[in-house]
Amino acid sequence: MASPREPKGSTKFARQTQTDPISARTRNPAPARRASKSGREFNPHAFLATIGEGRKAMLFPKKQTVFAQGDPADAVFYLQTGKVRLTVVSKTGKEATIGILTDGSFFGEGSLAGQTLRMGSATAMTDCAVLRIEKEAMVDTLHREHNLSDLFVAYLLTRNVRYEEDLVDQLFNSSEKRLARVLLMLAHFGKEGIPESVVPKISQETLAEMVGTTRSRVSFFMNRFRRLGFINYAGGSEGGLQVHSSLLNVVLTASGPFHLDCGTAAKQ
Question: pTM of the prediction?
Answer without folding.
Answer: 0.71
